[in-house]
Design a protein that fits this description.
Blueprint lengths: L2 H4 L6 E6 L14 H16 L3 E6 L7 H6 L4 H25 L4 E5 L8 E2 L2 H9 L3 E5 L9 H11 L4 E6 L4 E2 L11 E2 L1 E2 L1 H6 L7 H9 L4 E5 L4 H7 L7 E3 L3
């Protein structure tokens, strides 16, 4: 790859899936404002290059539905609490991005008109076309569905060129590298292989949505927020890609 090629965007419109854990930074709980500011700056830099950016944010840094279930809570209630946590994260991210000078819109799958727009597909696409960064929160608005599924669904709905999964690991492995030291890094892998081997890249419903809509999934480490730009600009060596088959 030449220097000029490395600066050419690989994708024009992206859906970035940010886990709640990604917002922890060095903390054990909550939001590390300093760390999400570095993430926001990376997104602002991409926005200035003309990349259209949508984001789905998780809520695991504040609350996970599985936590409530393990305490005997009804899963529907526990999942709705998780969706509210994603709204808190979305508003925090919106504030930081706008402080850096880029307009945003936070849309929620659960109506809460006083603090965010309701999710409307056509409106979201129009915001992207106008250069605004759009943050999708509250998951799909339904219990029993993860924020990964919400990310795949929104990526399909806004016609994203790729779904970028920013996580703590540097890509896709043949097994959990934390549990199996012999697991192999997979630079490229097919949707069906991920589903067949249950590789836990995203949940099965999310992978199937991306497969059916031919949306490549790029899995990469968010430990260095600059990786976002490297992935979008098509620089080799960052993360794993799920596509084809």
């Amino acid at each position: 790859m030449t220097e000029n090629q490395s600066k050419r965007p690989g994708y024009k419109r992206i859906l970035l899936k940010l886990s709640g854990e990604a917002l922890l930074g060095s903390q054990q709980y909550g939001i590390d404002v300093e760390f999400i500011t570095t993430i926001a700056q990376a997104l602002v830099d991409l926005n200035k290059k003309g990349i259209e950016i949508a984001i789905v944010v998780g809520g695991g840094n504040i609350w996970r539905g599985s936590q409530g279930v393990s305490l005997g809570m009804d899963q529907v209630t526990a999942d709705y609490m998780g969706m509210l946590a994603t709204v808190m994260n979305g508003l925090a991210l919106q504030t930081v991005i706008e402080q850096l000078g880029v307009p945003t819109r936070c849309q929620t799958a659960i109506a809460m008109h006083e603090i965010a727009e309701p999710y409307i597909q056509r409106r979201a696409i129009r915001h992207l076309e106008k250069g605004r960064i759009v943050i999708f929160s509250a998951g799909t608005g339904n219990p029993f569905f993860s924020s990964d599924t919400a990310a795949a669904l929104r990526a399909a709905e806004v016609h994203a060129n790729a779904l970028l999964k920013a996580t703590k690991t540097d890509g896709v492995y043949s097994d959990d590298p934390a549990k199996n030291s012999n697991s192999q890094f997979l630079k490229t892998v097919t949707y069906n292989h991920v589903l067949g081997e249950n590789l836990k890249v995203l949940d099965g419903a999310a992978v199937a949505i991306c497969r059916d809509n031919k949306i490549p999934i790029v899995v990469f480490s968010i430990s260095d927020p600059k990786n976002i730009e490297k992935v979008v600009m098509g620089i080799d060596g960052i993360g794993s890609i799920v596509q084809g088959g």
